[in-house]
Amino acid sequence: MTTFLDKQNWRYATKKFDAAKKISESDLDFLKEAVRLSASAFGLQLYKVIIVENPEIKAQLLPAAYGQSQIIDASHLFIFANQTNVGDAEIDAYLKNTSEIRELPIDALTGYGDYMKGYVKPIPEDAKDVWTAKQTYIALGNLLSAAAELNIDATPMEGFNAAEFNAILGLDKLNLNAAVIAPVGYRHEEDATQHHKKVRKSKDDLFITL
What are the residues facing 185 on neighbouring strands? Predict the structure, then answer.
């Protein structure tokens, strides 16, 4: 039986995907659920995840990703877009959802809601956008690990023009910003990178125990 660490050793940032291989609906649902269950600050999940499978849209995005072939060859392209202009409305929506799921009166959550609003409101808008963008990386990490569990390849990418992605997809009109992306699919047999030994720091170099 393979272990979590075996899968982490197996995965790598795929450079060339097999465009003929597509992710099944059941596996895609698994990946979506893994992303949905990701941790986030206060549990607010201040981001959206856009999943692009339409070849025409991928082709539009390709120049904004500097021509990297993973964009069009991968089965699906996950785009993690952080919310901008975050305020009381997002917190109120979270409280409403919590009230419904946990079957609690909304009044019981007022104190926690006030605490969150008191924390979030004073943050300058530019710093707030950085904060919400950071949350997307936690969800990205879950995607990478979940994909590896299914022997599905995923490549985290920051090498793209966010402003152009936002314009092509209309994200800016939705108070969203493309923070990080991940093409997901299956490695091509010609991708030489899969045969390279994984390079990571040793435990002694990486960890400091106090």
Answer: 153
* Domain assignment present for 112: no
For 146-162, write each residue's pLDDT tens digit. Answer: 999 999 999 999 999 99
On whether residue 77 sits in a domain, the answer given is yes
In this structure, are residues 179 and 133 in contact, taking their beta carbons and an 8 Å threshold? yes
Q: Which DSSP symbol is given to 110?
A: H
| Amino acid 137: pLDDT | 98
CB-based contact 154:14 (threshold 8 Å): yes
Q: Evaluate whether 86 touches 41 at the Cβ level (below 8 Å).
A: no
Any domain includes 25 = yes
| Three-class SS of 15-38 | CCECCCCCCCHHHHHHHHHHHHCC
Q: 125 in a domain, yes or no?
A: no
**DSSP labels for 62-116?**
TGGGTT-THHHHSSEEEEEEEE-S--HHHHHHHHHHHHHHHT--GGGGHHHHHHH
- Reading the block at residue 99, the tokens are 């009230």
Going by C-alpha positions, the residue among 166, 200, 197 that lies closest to residue 64 is: 166
Token readout for 179 is 């923070």
User: How many domains are contained in the chain?
Assistant: 1
CA angle 139, 202, 140 (to 5 degrees): 10
pTM for the predicted model, two decimal places: 0.96
Task: State both tokens at 51.
Answer: 């999943």
**Which tokens go with 74?**
């991968």
**Residue 155 structural domain:** 4-85+136-189
